Amino acid sequence: GAGVSQSPSNKVTEKGKDVELRCDPISGHTALYWYRQRLGQGLEFLIYFQGNSAPDKSGLPSDRFSAERTGESVSTLTIQRTQQEDSAVYLCASSLDSVSSGNTIYFGEGSWLTVV
Amino acid sequence: RKEVEQDPGPFNVPEGATVAFNCTYSNSASQSFFWYRQDCRKEPKLLMSVYSSGNEDGRFTAQLNRASQYISLLIRDSKLSDSATYLCVVNILSRNTNAGKSTFGDGTTLTVKP
């Protein structure tokens, strides 16, 4: 596809269960970001992958959160033992990430997570 | 202190008004700058890049002041459809990876009323 693809688009889960969210970046994009956005609030940076470099995990809120990326393709964000406070939309974004490209970021439509 | 700061607003203006948003950034090594727009319950989308010399796209004008480390967005002749949250984005080039990392402000909310 032409854009960033995320799945599932909506997920309702019970407190304590694990969830896995998937992101397919735009083909060829070396940089991939995960953000969390609670209703009515700003984007909260979670993690950043750039090529083969070590990921920047500085935004992960707790050890219940983890993310993986295979090469320069698909990424998965895993939340273990979900809590109600994890309810939010999880946005994935990718960019070509070169100075010449201007580093424009393109977002997916998000995965809306509700923990009940 | 946050790396990118914006006045959260909300800004409530009548149709036809001119409104300006500012954004300050703390890292002087920042390389590129953007404004994104986010509609309610939608993902952010690129509105415009911000160039050193300033740039205009229709009713929208973006400016960069590197010395004072801020960027601005001016919207002229506001339309009802301009109602949204406007996000400031700063990209910092990493010496380690020779690639950039983008940092978002929390956004400024604009409501244009009839």
Quick summary:
The complex is a heterodimer of chains A (116) and B (114). Chain A is 0% helix and 46% strand.
Question: How many beta-strand elements of chain B?
Answer: 11
- Return the structural class of chain B: mainly beta
Roughly how many Å is the radius of gyration of chain B?
A: 14 Å
Number of strands of chain A: 10
**Strand fraction band of chain A?**
over 45%
- Uncertain segments of chain B are none
Q: For the terminal residues of chain B, how far apart are their CA atoms?
A: 37 Å
Task: Describe the secondary-structure layout.
The complex is a heterodimer of chains A (116) and B (114).
Chain A: E1 5-7, E2 10-13, E3 19-24, E4 31-37, E5 44-50, E6 65-69, E7 75-79, E8 88-95, E9 105-107, E10 111-115
Parallel strand pairs in A: 2-10
Antiparallel strand pairs in A: 1-3, 3-7, 4-5, 4-8, 6-7, 8-9, 8-10
Chain B: E1 4-6, E2 11-14, E3 19-25, E4 30-38, E5 45-50, E6 55-57, E7 60-65, E8 70-75, E9 84-94, E10 99-104, E11 108-113
Parallel strand pairs in B: 2-11
Antiparallel strand pairs in B: 1-3, 3-8, 4-5, 4-9, 6-7, 7-8, 9-10, 9-11
Structure, described:
With 116 residues, chain A is mostly beta strands. Helices cover 0% and strands 46% of the residues of chain A. Chain A has strands spanning 5-7, 10-13, 19-24, 31-37, 44-50, 65-69, 75-79, 88-95, 105-107, 111-115. Chain A starts with a strand and ends with a strand. The mean pLDDT of chain A is 92. Chain B is mostly beta strands and 114 residues long. In chain B, the strands form 2 sheets. In chain B, strands 2, 4, 5, 9, 10 and 11 form a 6-stranded mixed β-sheet that branches. A 5-stranded antiparallel β-sheet of chain B has the order 1-3-8-7-6, with no helix packed on it. Chain B is globular, with a radius of gyration of 14 Å. The termini of chain B are far apart. The A-B interface holds A 30-31, 33, 35, 41-43, 45, 48, 50-51, 53, 56, 89, 91, 95, 97-99, 102-110 and B 31-32, 34, 36, 41-46, 49, 87, 89, 91, 93-94, 96-97, 99-107.
